[in-house]
Amino acid sequence: MRLETKTALVTGAAGGIGLAIARRFAAEGANVVMVDRNADRLTESVNATQGEVRALVGDVTVPDDVDRMVALCESEFGGLDICVCNAGVIRAAEFLDLELADLDFVLNVNVRGAFLTAQRAARAMVRQGQGGSLIMLSSMTAELAMSNQLAYGASKGAVRQMTKSMALAMAPHGVRVNALGPGSIDTDIMATISNNPDNLRKVLSRIPMTRLGRPDEVAGVALFLASEDSSYVTGQTIYADGGRLAL
Ligand code: NAD
C-alpha cells in the first residue's frame, strides 16, 4: 500500500480519469474525497468504489465550494496530503469561429478552477506543515497545437506553466507540484472523436502505440506523482500519450 495514512482530494472524480485516479488511490490505502459537479454520476461512482471514500458535490470555479472540499478532508480525515486538480472541460472550435463564451467557459474551469483548487489545497498543506503533492491535469495539447482546440490548448498550456510557478513557491514547504499530460484517453471528453470511426482512425494513425489510452494508465502516473517514489520530482509535466509527442 503506497498511500496508507494519506488523504487525497480528487476533483472531476465522477468518471473518466478522475474516477480511475480516485479508485487507484483508495486501493493504495488513501482516504479519498471525490468531488464533481455532476451529483447523480458522482453518487453512482462513489457507491461503486471500494475503500475510505467520501463524495462531495461541488464546482471547482466556486470559491465556497472549494473551501468545503478542503474542509471535508480536514473534518473527515484530519488533513490533506494529495490534491488532484482534474476537473476539466473542452469546447472544440476553429480559431475564426470560436465564441468568446466558449473561450471563457474553458478558461474558467480549466485554469481558474484548477488554480483555485490548487491554491486552497496548498494553503491547507502549509497550515499542516507536513508537505504534500499537488497534481495538475494538463494535456499533450499544451505542446501540440490543434486548430480546433485553441481554447483547450491555451488552458492546458497555462496549467503547465502554473505548475512550474506553484512548484517554485511550494518547494520551501515540502509540497511538490507536478502536472500530468494525457494524450488521447478513452473517456467522455474523447467521445465525440471515438464515436466517429473516421475521426478515430485519423487519431489512431497519429499515435505510435496505435490505440487510445485507458484512464487507469493515467492513474498509474498519478500514483507515481502522489507517492514517495517521486520524492525529488517537482515542477514537471509528465506526458502519458502513447508516444504522440515523440513524433
Ligand atoms: P471527463 O469529461 O470524463 O471527466 C471530467 C469530469 O470533470 C466530469 O465528471 C465533469 O462533471 C467534471 N467537471 C467538469 N467541470 C467541473 C467543475 N467546474 N467542477 C467540478 N467538476 C467538474 O473527462 P476526462 O477525460 O476524465 O478528463 C479529466 C481531465 O483530464 C481533464 O482536465 C481533461 O482536460 C484532462 N485530459 C483528458 C484527456 C483525454 O483524452 N481524455 C486528454 C488530456 C487531458
From TrEMBL:
Record keywords, A-Z: Oxidoreductase
GO molecular function, one term: oxidoreductase activity
Domain (Ketoreductase): residue spans on this chain: 6-183
SMART domains: PKS_KR
Pfam families in the record: adh_short_C2 (PF13561)
InterPro entries registered for this protein in UniProt: KR_dom (IPR057326), NAD(P)-bd_dom_sf (IPR036291), Sc_DH/Rdtase_CS (IPR020904), SDR_fam (IPR002347)
Family label: Belongs to the short-chain dehydrogenases/reductases (SDR) family.
Protein name: NAD(P)-dependent dehydrogenase (Short-subunit alcohol dehydrogenase family)
